């Protein structure tokens, strides 16, 4: 069996690079999906935190300023 020509070697290497490129593109797409999901989750949690803070502030506003104020 004759040794592969330089052109054949280059063609084989290009084919491997193309396969690797496709793999990297798929991996990148999956990672981007994860980033998008985590960004949505973060935004939801920030919104819930803001709502909880608002509720806590409202509750604190209903507390008397002086602890002895309610005493008879």
TrEMBL record:
It comes from the Bacteria. Residues 7-55 form a coiled coil. Keywords: Coiled coil. The keyword Coiled coil applies. The keyword Coiled coil applies. This is DUF904 domain-containing protein. It comes from Variovorax ginsengisoli. The lineage of its organism: Bacteria, Pseudomonadati, Pseudomonadota, Betaproteobacteria, Burkholderiales.
């Amino acid at each position: 069996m004759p040794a592969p020509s330089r052109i054949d070697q280059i063609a084989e290497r290009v084919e491997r690079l193309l396969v690797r490129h496709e793999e990297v593109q798929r991996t990148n797409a999956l990672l981007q999906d994860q980033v998008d999901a985590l960004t949505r989750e973060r935004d939801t949690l920030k919104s819930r935190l803001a709502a909880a803070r608002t509720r806590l502030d409202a509750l604190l506003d209903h507390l008397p300023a002086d602890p002895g104020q309610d005493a008879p």
